[in-house]
Automatic annotation (TrEMBL):
This is GIY-YIG nuclease family protein. It comes from the Bacteria. PANTHER family: BSL5627 PROTEIN, UPF0213 PROTEIN YHBQ. Belongs to the UPF0213 family. Residues 2-79 form the GIY-YIG domain. InterPro entries: GIY-YIG_endonuc (IPR000305), GIY-YIG_endonuc_sf (IPR035901), UPF0213_domain (IPR050190). Pfam families: GIY-YIG. It comes from Mariniflexile jejuense.
Length: 99
């Protein structure tokens, strides 16, 4: 069974929240941290993973991503604060090895 993830990235001052979906969270966070793609997260320096949920089906993850994106900022902040009140980078200590 392959997991899928919905995740939140933010910048060092926690002023921007980016919501994404992926089948490989480790690799995707690495891509954000290294600014591998010159999109929203690179422009706003969103390189800190502050929240994620895992799913057994990519379609469930996509549905949840859409639901979260449609919500207001306070709801997103509440999700983060309930699991990560200090807004720590949850990927600290992860090792990134990719070809």
């Amino acid at each position: 069974m392959n997991k899928s993830y919905v995740y939140f990235m933010t910048n060092k001052n926690n002023t921007v929240i980016y919501i994404g979906v992926t089948a490989n969270l480790l690799k995707r966070v690495y891509q954000h941290k290294t600014k591998a793609y010159k999109g929203f997260t690179a422009k706003y320096n969103c390189d800190k993973l502050v929240y994620f949920e895992d799913f057994s089906d990519i379609n469930q993850a996509i549905t949840r991503e859409k639901q979260l994106k449609a919500g207001n900022r306070k709801n997103k902040e509440d999700l983060i604060i309930n699991t990560n009140p200090e807004w720590n980078d949850l990927s600290d200590g992860w090792l990134f090895y990719f070809d």
